[in-house]
Design goal:
Low-confidence stretches: 28-149
Strand content: 25-35%
Order of helices and strands: HHHEEEEEEEEEEE
Number of strands: 11
Helix content: 25-40%
Shape: rod-shaped
Largest sheet: 6 strands, antiparallel
Length: 318
Amino acid sequence: MRRFVLCLMAFSLSLVYVGSLFQSIPNSFEMASAAEATHVVFLPMVQRDGTPLLIPTSTLTTTPIHTGTPTLTRTPTSTPTQTKTPTSTTTSTRTNTPTSTTTSTRTNTPTSTTTSTRTNTPTSTRTNTPTSTPTNTSTHPPTSTPTSTRTTCTITQLVSDSSFEAGSPSLYWQVSSSQSSEILDNSPIPQPNPTHTGTWKAWLGGANLVQESVWQTFTVATSATTLQVSFWWHVNTSESAPLINDSLHVQITDANGNWLQTVYTLYDGDANSAWVQQVIPISPTYAGQTLRIVLVANTDSSDPTNFFIDDVVVSACQ
């Protein structure tokens, strides 16, 4: 009975102590929040039947203190940082840079470069160059070249009876005709001037499908430095559209008649109403060789062409 009473009294005291403990808990939370420190409460041991009983309350104290504190501290700190950064950077950079660069560069550069270059360069170049060049160059070449040529060259006529005045048959000119026509002629054709000089000429062509020629052999001296052929010609034709239907070639051959070169060609398209002279330099000079001057005419099958030749000259400078 006595043991029961003692246990009941001990239990009552424990209840009274625990009740006072729960009343002090809210005050402990407020103090912990203000000081930002951990508050640990230990209850006294109550002995029942000699066995200690420990009720820890540290769990209730540590949890609310660390949960609320970081939220209040970090939120206001980040706000001022984001507001000030873009304002100061944009204002200083864009205002100063374009103003100073554009003004100084464009004003000074073109003024000094253009003025000095165009004033000095043309003056010195054009004054000195033309004065010395024409005076020295044009004096000597024309004077010396013609003088030496004329004093050392003798013009020699290499063919005989150049105007065909020896008549037909000729002792100097050989002739050939596929129709046995007379080549050396003294007729009144063509009108009004049948010859260039004298009364005889060479008349080639004048018929369809004819080949006729006249030639003379001559020798070039070994000292010859130039060779030249000249003659007078007159052409008339029956061709309705004259061009190259009929032709006469002036040729140089060797002594046996082998062709060396053609120096000039007349066609029916060269038809005219007056005598015309042709002068042709010959190259090479064939110095020391025996040659022929040959005039050969060919006509086609219709509308014949007449080729009249007079005053044939082959000359050499030797």
